[in-house]
């Protein structure tokens, strides 16, 4: 994605077809709506409703505070502030509709916007990697959607805020042509970008709809996972929404401080009342109220985010026989995400601390050409469902190699000592801070820092031991060929990252001063997918080099040539 003035209409020099190769013009799936003479199309007119509402939503909190402040000074005249704010929101909300145009040419997709500062975004058609749709509640009421077009070059995306649903579908078909069969150009992806496409349909000839094996035939859609309401039991066990609650409480505290009940007199009266109550009963009531509140927040958030969840594999892509993963979910805001499977290079299986007691997990894919490189494809669900879907996404041979369930090679006593030292530094820091705070406070008993220090010490030991137990690596093979690099990490949340061996494009060995003293290193596999690297932490240097050499045979030969102290490939990886 780039910004050009004026836009270029020639073939992209980075095109996988080559700069001189002929390109098939992209045809409209249906006639575009009201283009001008040059093919430019304006956003849907319903942007004149969504734009002002969005502006009011963005400035709602400052407007309320401003209205209260003006009202205390001007009295009834402050009501004039309301129509002024509405008119300003309408003007600001109408600017995007007046100044945003888009069009598709034979070689690229273009969007121009801006009133004073004009911006022209262009994306070569052969570089479009994703066309995602998002519809908020207001979008759905008005029958429109938001389209985001990604090229995989960086995190920036071309966004069309308001287009009709048929227009969004037309853009998806035009920008991501689906070739289920027949002749089509077969560009060669960049190193590590995508797995080789099959010559024909990925399904065997006998696997047709209605066959005993139950595998969909060519042209059919295969459902990988749908939401089951029994999965709601995992919602309270995920603490990710605590950050949202804390942020909302922090933002609201600025407003609550101005209320008349939050003053010294009321605070003293509340403290006196609490002192006269039976403390154990009071703590029990507070705990029950907080638990019920958390259940309501977590369950509501889970339903709002994942209602209607459906993950399917559908035929289509830029090559014959390609398939894509299509995810759709959301109660109020509906998300629709499509990822070509040949660009999926791995998966990440996360088991949060509390969810592990209920055998729950979450799954995300590592792919090239998508925003942030990762796409969460499963909500909190049973771990056997996450493992089955993960192996299915990784390819037909992943179930035999079983990278998500393969035992990990331990990193040894040196890695355990390093984990304990790293965690106890945190314990020492918090313990010292607690001791200093107790000495500075007059009303805190002298014995209070002792249980706090003990708590942090126990927490540090538990965290270090959990971090070490989750640490490890593995290399799965099939038919004598390396298939998947597996890296285990995490402290209280266990994380297993699986990267296809074909997706590794290089290696980086990192050693800190303390790692060199213990013979450990961080082995980093660079890739074009996900966060562009997969890290194997605190592995023995010799074991790490053998692991890299076995994952990508021959890639490290120039580096290890002539090094007598470097273990060779024949040595076992776990030694």
Tag the structure with descriptive keywords.
alpha+beta; seven-stranded antiparallel β-sheet; 37% helix; disordered N terminus
Describe the structure in brief.
The protein is α+β, with helices and mostly antiparallel strands and 575 residues long. It contains 16 helices and 21 strands.
Q: In what order do the strands lie side by side in the largest sheet?
A: 8-7-6-12-11-10-9
The beta-strand count equals 21
Mean pLDDT: 77
Gap from first CA to last CA: 47 Å
Main sheet?
Answer: 7 strands, antiparallel
| Rounded Rg | 29 Å
Helix content: 25-40%
Number of helices: 16
List low-pLDDT spans.
1-32, 179-218, 567-572
Sum up the overall morphology in one term.
globular
Q: Give the amount of beta strand, in percent.
A: 15-25%
Overall structural class, as computed from helix and strand content, comes to alpha+beta
Describe the structure.
The chain has 575 residues and is α+β, with helices and mostly antiparallel strands. Among the domains are: 56 residues, no CATH class; 58 residues, no CATH class. Helix content is 37%, strand content 23%. The strands form four sheets. The chain has a seven-stranded antiparallel β-sheet. β4 and β5 form a beta hairpin. α1 packs across α3 and α12 runs antiparallel to α13. It is globular and about 70 Å long. The protein starts with a strand and ends in a 15-residue tail after the last helix. The N terminus is likely disordered.
């Amino acid at each position: 994605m780039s910004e050009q003035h004026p836009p270029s209409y020639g073939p992209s020099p980075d095109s996988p077809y080559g700069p001189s190769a002929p390109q098939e013009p992209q045809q409209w799936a249906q006639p575009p709506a009201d283009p001008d003479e040059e093919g430019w199309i304006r956003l849907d007119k319903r942007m004149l409703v969504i734009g002002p509402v969005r502006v009011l939503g963005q400035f709602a909190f400052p407007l309320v505070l401003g209205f209260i402040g003006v009202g205390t000074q001007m009295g009834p005249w402050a009501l004039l502030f309301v129509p002024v704010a509405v008119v300003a929101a309408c003007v600001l909300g109408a600017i995007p509709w007046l100044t945003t145009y888009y069009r598709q040419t034979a070689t690229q997709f273009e969007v121009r916007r801006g009133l004073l500062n004009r911006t022209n975004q262009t994306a070569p058609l052969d570089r479009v990697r994703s066309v995602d749709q998002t519809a908020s509640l207001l979008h759905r009421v008005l029958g429109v959607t938001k389209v985001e077009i990604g090229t995989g070059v960086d995190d920036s995306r071309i966004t069309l805020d308001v287009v009709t649903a048929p227009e969004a579908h037309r853009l998806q078909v035009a920008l991501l042509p689906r070739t289920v069969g027949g002749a089509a150009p077969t560009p060669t992806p960049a190193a590590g970008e995508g797995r080789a496409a099959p010559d024909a349909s990925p399904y065997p000839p006998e696997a047709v709809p209605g066959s005993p094996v139950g595998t969909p035939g060519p042209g059919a859609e295969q459902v990988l996972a749908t939401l089951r309401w029994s999965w709601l039991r995992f919602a309270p066990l995920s603490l990710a929404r605590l950050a949202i609650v804390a942020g909302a409480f922090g933002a609201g505290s600025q407003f609550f401080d101005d209320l008349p009940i939050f003053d010294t007199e009321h605070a003293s009266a509340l403290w006196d009342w609490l002192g006269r109550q039976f403390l154990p009963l009071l703590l029990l009531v507070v705990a029950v109220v907080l638990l019920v509140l958390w259940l309501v927040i977590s369950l509501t958030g889970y339903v709002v985010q994942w209602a209607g969840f459906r993950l399917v594999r559908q035929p289509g892509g830029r090559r014959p026989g390609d398939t894509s993963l299509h995810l759709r979910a959301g109660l109020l805001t509906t998300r629709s995400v499509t990822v070509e499977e040949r660009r999926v290079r791995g998966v990440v299986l996360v088991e949060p601390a509390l969810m592990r007691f209920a055998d729950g997990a979450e799954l995300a894919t590592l792919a090239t050409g998508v925003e942030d490189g990762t796409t969460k494809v499963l909500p909190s669900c049973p771990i056997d469902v996450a493992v089955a879907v993960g192996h299915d996404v990784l390819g037909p041979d992943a179930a035999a190699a079983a990278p998500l369930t393969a035992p990990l090679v331990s990193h040894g006593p040196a890695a355990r000592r390093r984990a304990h030292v790293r965690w106890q530094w945190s314990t020492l820091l918090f313990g010292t801070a607690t001791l200093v705070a107790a000495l500075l406070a007059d009303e805190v008993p002298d014995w209070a820092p002792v249980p706090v220090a003990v708590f942090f010490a126990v927490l540090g030991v538990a965290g270090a031991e959990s971090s070490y137990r989750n640490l490890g690596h593995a290399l799965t093979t099939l038919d004598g060929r390396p298939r998947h690099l597996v890296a285990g990490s995490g402290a209280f949340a266990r994380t297993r990252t699986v990267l296809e061996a074909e997706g590794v494009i290089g290696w980086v060995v990192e050693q800190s001063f303390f790692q060199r003293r213990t013979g450990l290193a961080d082995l980093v596999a660079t890739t074009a997918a996900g966060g562009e690297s997969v890290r194997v932490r605190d592995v023995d240097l010799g074991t790490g080099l053998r692991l890299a050499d076995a994952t990508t045979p021959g890639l490290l030969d120039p580096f290890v040539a002539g090094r007598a102290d470097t273990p060779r490939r024949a040595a076992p990886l776990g030694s």
